[in-house]
């Protein structure tokens, strides 16, 4: 090896050392997140070193088979559960270092959540408007007439953005499931959270209503700039966001990015989707099952480094072990 290449390697190593920390500019950073559950002496590794970065202002979906770890991740991000190892930061808060008091403030002010069970999201004997005002009150809003008027005004503004202004004076039982879920989004947005988390928010609804709920999330994202993470089984919902991240066996495995492309000649807009695999911090890559199965790849694959890409081919060592 010549001196020049040694110098070059040293230069690259120094450059790497000066690089900012992983996820330094992301709103949500999950770094090698691990969550192990132990029940009756049996260990389940729900998260096995999950990496995820979410940028401020994103509206993204998390998808994955049942048991892949989606709800476990959402509960950690919601401040309801703690990871076994790894690091997780949301809006500058270290989720592993929070005390009970900070955790409560985090849940009230930094994150908002919408659950699948419509009934779990709202207080049954309060009107939509009172439901939205409640988190603001609990946060320590004043008791005076002015504070009350301000809360009512924000509640009205949120219900209007989510297109359920007509439900303001109705109790949950007087609303449809879709209306309840849109009011639930307003409740989650009441304290201007940095992040809105939604776990299967359209799970109990038919697909037309599900689309309305999704439109409500998009309105919240566009009009209020809130970062939104939605866990969904609904392929339609997943395909309407710019970024869908798939979780497999407790790790992020692949993601699909969609962008609008304008045809230079006709000026017609079309949505272009591209699939990416996630290269985790340890250099691990999960290849989509359809790809490996199509080429009969298992156990071992042949790797070659090319100037601008890496080639992965089926094991071609016929004399191999
Ligand atoms: N409190 C718990 N105690 C023991 N095991 C748990 C607990 N919570 C989750 N698990 C296990 O961890 C794994 C991941 O579960 P999780 O609920 O995160 O999956 P999911 O992707 O949300 O699934 P689904 O789509 O069915 O909701 C599963 O094997 C599950 O059985």
Automatic annotation (TrEMBL):
Residues 31-274 form the ABC transporter domain. GO terms for cellular component: plasma membrane. Residues 274-317 form the SpoVT-AbrB domain. InterPro entries: AAA+_ATPase (IPR003593), ABC_transporter-like_ATP-bd (IPR003439), ABC_transporter-like_CS (IPR017871), ABC_transpr_LolD-like (IPR015854), MacB-like_ATP-bd (IPR017911), P-loop_NTPase (IPR027417), SpoVT-AbrB_dom (IPR007159). It comes from the Bacteria. GO terms for molecular function: ATP binding; ATP hydrolysis activity; DNA binding; transmembrane transporter activity. SUPFAM superfamilies: P-loop containing nucleoside triphosphate hydrolases (SSF52540). Pfam families: ABC_tran (PF00005). Keywords: ATP-binding, DNA-binding, Nucleotide-binding, Transport. Coiled coil: none annotated. This is ABC transporter ATP-binding protein. The lineage of its organism: Bacteria, Bacillati, Actinomycetota, Actinomycetes, Kitasatosporales.
């Amino acid at each position: 090896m010549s001196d020049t290449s040694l110098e070059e390697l040293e230069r690259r190593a120094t450059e790497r050392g000066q690089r900012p920390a992983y996820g330094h500019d992301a709103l949500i950073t999950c770094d090698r997140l691990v969550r192990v559950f132990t029940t009756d002496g049996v260990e389940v590794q729900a998260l096995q070193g999950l990496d995820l970065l979410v940028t401020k202002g994103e509206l993204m979906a998390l998808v994955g088979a049942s048991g892949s770890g989606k709800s476990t991740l959402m509960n950690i991000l919601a401040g309801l559960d703690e990871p076994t190892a790894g690091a997780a930061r949301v809006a500058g808060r270290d989720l592993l270092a929070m005390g009970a008091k900070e955790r409560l403030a985090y849940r009230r002010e930094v994150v908002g959540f919408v659950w699948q069970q419509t009934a779990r999201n709202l207080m049954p004997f309060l009107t939509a408007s009172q439901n939205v005002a409640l988190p603001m009150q609990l946060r320590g809003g004043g008791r005076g007439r002015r504070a009350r008027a301000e809360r009512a005004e924000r509640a009205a503004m949120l219900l209007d953005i989510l297109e359920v202004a007509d439900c303001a004076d109705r109790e949950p039982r007087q609303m449809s499931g879709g209306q309840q879920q849109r009011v639930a989004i307003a409740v989650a947005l009441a304290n201007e959270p940095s992040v809105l988390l939604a776990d299967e928010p359209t799970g109990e609804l038919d697909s037309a209503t599900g689309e309305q709920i999704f439109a409500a999330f998009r309105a919240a994202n566009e009009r209020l700039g809130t970062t939104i993470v939605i866990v969904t089984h609904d392929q339609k919902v997943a395909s309407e966001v710019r970024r869908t991240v798939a979780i497999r066996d407790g790790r992020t495995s692949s993601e699909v990015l969609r962008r609008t492309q304008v045809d230079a000649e006709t000026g017609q807009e079309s949505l272009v989707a591209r699939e990416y695999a996630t290269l985790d911090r340890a250099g691990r890559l999960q290849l989509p099952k359809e790809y490996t199965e199509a080429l009969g790849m298992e156990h071992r694959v042949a790797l070659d480094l090319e100037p601008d890409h890496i080639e992965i081919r089926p094991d071609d060592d016929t004399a191999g072990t």
